[in-house]
Specification:
The protein is mainly α and 120 residues long. It has helices spanning 11-49, 53-69, 73-87, 91-119.
């Protein structure tokens, strides 16, 4: 499974979390991660719609770091795309990247959940 989703998720990152925190700890981490991700994505949409690129840059950066911490590589890359678009006030590019974030979140959640379940 890992090979097929290597671009989407760095399984070594989540495996390291499993080794350190155990299944219950990872469940807590992932619950907090998804809650935070949903909130940050909502914030980004609002900030970009308002043309508030300076705050959107910070929000995208936070999402990028959070995703990287759990091994959500493609999500981190999409957040980086939003961040870069906001730095150049590229609203159309930021909107496309935001749509990518929504799609990638769904895929990442499914793959990570299946991986964590299989590791238990």
């Amino acid at each position: 499974m890992a090979g097929a989703y290597a671009e989407l998720v760095d399984f070594s990152q989540i495996d390291a979390l499993l080794d350190v925190a155990g299944r219950d700890g990872v469940d807590d981490i992932m619950c907090a991660f998804w809650r935070s991700t949903e909130g940050l994505a909502r914030q980004l949409k609002l900030q970009i719609a308002e043309g508030n690129y300076s705050d959107a840059i910070k929000t995208a950066h936070a999402l990028k770091g959070s995703a990287a911490n759990v091994g959500a590589c493609l999500l981190a890359a999409a957040a980086r795309s939003v961040e870069l678009c906001c730095k150049t006030s590229d609203e159309p590019g930021a909107i496309v990247a935001l749509e990518d974030i929504d799609r990638i979140c769904v895929q990442t959640r499914l793959v990570l959940t299946a991986h964590i379940e299989a590791a238990a």
